[in-house]
Amino acid sequence: MAQLSVRRGREAVEFYQKAFGAVEDYRVGGTDDNEAVVSQLSIGEATFWVADESPEHSNFSPETVGGSTVRLLLVVDDPDAAIAKAVAAGAREVYPAANEHRWRLGRIEDPFGHHWEIGKPLIAWPPAH
Predict the structure, then answer these.
(1) Closest C-alpha to 105, from 125, 90, 89
(2) pTM of this prediction?
């Protein structure tokens, strides 16, 4: 399970809900009294955490380090529509969905610096050996 470090955690949770239809399963903080948020989100069967960066615990956001060191892969039925929805919610399209390597795949950068490849396999996955 991944944890994404971000700045503006409450805003990030709202973005993932709007862009990807994420459901918030659990939250600590993210209030006016305790602004820092740690939230467990799920998109379909995939679960991940979003937390405000905490340099004192060596958790830095892509905005702080000047880029992301990972790409996340979100498998969906309609990559083109999912990319369009994410862009409408505030993401930047890195490249549009295209067919390559037996996948329909595109990439966005979310407003917090994380890169998401959004696609679906064009053949049965995983391929038979």
Answers:
(1) 125
(2) 0.90
